[in-house]
Write a structure and sequence with these properties.
alpha+beta, 277 residues, elongated, 5-stranded antiparallel sheet
Length: 277
């Protein structure tokens, strides 16, 4: 996936009228922040502000401002056949407006891409590739949320809560406290959590703790008992039982598969670091 050219937060007069019957020779991704008119197969489609639009390679491009100044971010991209398959697998439609709940988030990604594009960073290409994959993955998530009705402020609260669990899995998370934070009954909270993320909250907490434990086992030589405490378990027997149920290996067996990564210092983990997991 190659970034050919990029523009961030461009403002045009209300008379803007793009007319490219042969396309631009590459894929064109647009974040349109103002009302616009797209002509698709001879039909004018009026779109509200805050939409994403992806033109395929060599597809005719006809779009214009809709009575007001035209504001957008844009990217010209070259896709390999694998990239095209990746976009299809994400169910991102071509020549179809996609409403965005949080266009500021995507615009910030475009800004980050723009900064990297014009930089001389040694890791420029790989960084751009990471940003592009994040961008399209999140576009796909917006489409899925819209189709399943899981967007909006309530979903955002759940997503933030889930982020907290994954960032600090060692805390004593419980359903009563979590549901109280969102002002919902425990039963309704659990119902929505499973609906939004496809996993029960209890199972998700266990998963987050096991993933955290994997990092500690792989990167440190801390004792199994200490790691179980660091992951929020009151006793190491319970920890070892859940770890084996999840991975098929005991913690000791798992650690043995990564001998070159073990930290011989056995340094203590600082739980106050927000980026530890």
């Amino acid at each position: 996936m190659d970034l050919v050219l990029i523009g961030y937060n461009h403002i045009h007069d209300a008379d803007l009228n793009i007319n490219r019957p042969l396309g631009s020779g590459d894929y064109l991704a647009l974040l349109v922040k103002s009302p616009a008119v797209f002509t698709i197969n001879g039909t004018d489609l009026h779109t509200p502000p805050n939409i994403f639009f992806l033109y395929s390679k060599d597809s005719p491009q006809y779009y214009r401002a809709d009575g007001k100044a035209f504001a957008n971010d844009w990217m010209h991209l070259n896709f390999s056949s694998a990239d095209e398959e990746y976009i299809r697998d994400l169910n991102i439609p071509l020549e179809t407006p996609v409403p965005l709940n949080d266009i500021e988030y995507f615009s910030l990604l475009i800004n980050s891409l723009s900064v990297e594009y014009y930089s001389s960073s040694a890791q420029k290409k790989s960084t751009i590739d990471c940003f592009l994959h994040i961008f399209f993955n999140k576009i796909s998530e917006q489409i899925t949320e819209s189709e399943t009705g899981i967007g909006g402020k309530k979903y955002d609260k759940f997503a933030l809560l889930r982020s907290k669990i994954y960032t600090r899995p060692y805390l004593k998370w419980d359903i009563a406290n979590l549901s109280h934070q969102i002002c919902l009954s425990p039963s309704y909270f659990q119902h929505l959590y499973k609906k939004y993320f496809g996993i029960t909250c209890k199972a998700d907490i266990i998963y987050a703790r096991i993933e955290y434990a994997k990092q500690l086992l792989m990167n440190t030589s801390l004792s199994i008992r200490y790691i179980s405490e660091q992951c929020g378990y009151e006793n190491d027997v319970h920890f070892m039982r859940q770890f084996k149920q999840s991975t098929g290996l005991t913690p000791t067996q798992y650690r043995a598969t990564f001998p070159e990564h073990n930290d011989s210092t056995g340094s203590v983990i600082d739980r106050n670091r927000p980026d530890i997991f």
